[in-house]
Amino acid sequence: MSGQSKRWTAVVATAAAGILVLWWSAAPVAKQNGQQNAPNPVIKATSDPAWTPSKTAWGHPDLQGIWNNGTYTSLERSLKLADKEFFTEEEAVAYYNDMAAADVDGRRDQLVHYDFTQYGLDKWQNGVKANLRTSVIYDPKNGRLPPMTPEAKARLSVPRPRGADIRSRGITERCITGYWGGLPMLTNSGGPGADAEHQILQTKDYVLIVSQSSNDNRIIPLDGRPHLSSRIPRWFGDARGRWDGDTLVIDTTNLGHTSFRGASPQMHLVERLTRVREDVLLYQFTIEDPATWTAPISGELPWVTSPGPMFEFACHETNYGLLNILKSQMAAAKRGGPTESRRRARTEGELPVGAR
């Protein structure tokens, strides 16, 4: 080995050792302190009587800023908690610490490429606070999704094979929508903290919500216009906004896609956003979807301010996974082998069993 090669080998080895030290030492304050205190205090999701909400120049409540809706609070309440709707502050801190520690431990089983703690992107590194609620859902009273209708069970029981052509890949994988979870605005559990960032901008006639993930945006008119025809679906639905005191109410129909627990395109969503403190925005939602659930669903989640700024989300930068999937399918088709789409067609009875 040449002297230059040896030097480069030493540099690479030193850098690798440094990365490993940082990786293994990236534990939340909660774990390092023996579960004594949460890295962030318990969030206050109630109005502060000593705080006066600010207004825009045209008199609307000012909701503007960058907000983080990341949370360790589960969508549904654990069966072990039964009807316990709220933690005590001590219980909330302990739950937060356990979840933050598990977040770090889970990352260590992944490739470094996906270890978000390296870049300060895990939820515990992004200002997420302990929450007194034991679940996001508060209605039904048991904090869990209501039973599904027979129609929904039949709809969701139909196999949906994961194909290998561009149209069969998920819409997030294809960068049509981001990783923030869709509607209602509940960040997918386990995702990095950056996926939970959303910026609110206001004018007299519109409210704009921009999500960091995939640069998604919702343009919400406030002028009282009617909803679009039900025959015109949109990725994030057809939203209409109005003010109810200090609360922005968003009524959304015409959802062309929803990833929320098997909901149908007929899902009707009403969201309420209220700034209850300078640094807290209370997000509440109610879902009505008679084609999927036997009762409405309501929940709430406090959002906290984020210092920003939000950065560009370059969705398909080096997305070699999707590219290689498509390349392999083209190669299979070229040599006459069965492609995923033809295998699927044969399975569904569109091709004779003996056909390729």
* SS class: alpha+beta
Name the average pLDDT: 77
Largest sheet: 10 strands, antiparallel
Terminal Cα span = 52 Å
The best one-word shape is globular
Portion of residues in beta strands equals 15-25%
Model description:
The chain is of the alpha+beta class. It folds into two domains: 29-43 and 53-305, no CATH class; 318-356, no CATH class. It has six helices and ten strands. A hairpin with a 2-residue loop joins β6 (238-244) and β7. It is globular. The chain starts with a helix and ends in a 9-residue tail after the last helix. The model is unreliable at 1-39 and 341-356 (pLDDT under 50).
Q: How is this fold's topology laid out?
A:
Elements: H1 3-25, H2 29-32, E1 65-68, H3 89-107, E2 137-139, H4 150-157, E3 197-202, E4 206-211, E5 217-221, E6 238-244, E7 247-253, E8 268-277, E9 280-288, E10 297-305, H5 320-334, H6 340-347
Antiparallel strand pairs: 1-3, 1-10, 2-10, 3-4, 4-5, 6-7, 7-8, 8-9, 9-10
Short description:
The protein is α+β, with helices and mostly antiparallel strands and 356 residues long. The protein contains six helices and ten strands.
Q: Top keywords for this entry?
A:
22% helix; 2 domains; 10-stranded antiparallel sheet; 19% strand; alpha+beta; disordered N terminus; 356 residues; 6 helices; disordered C terminus
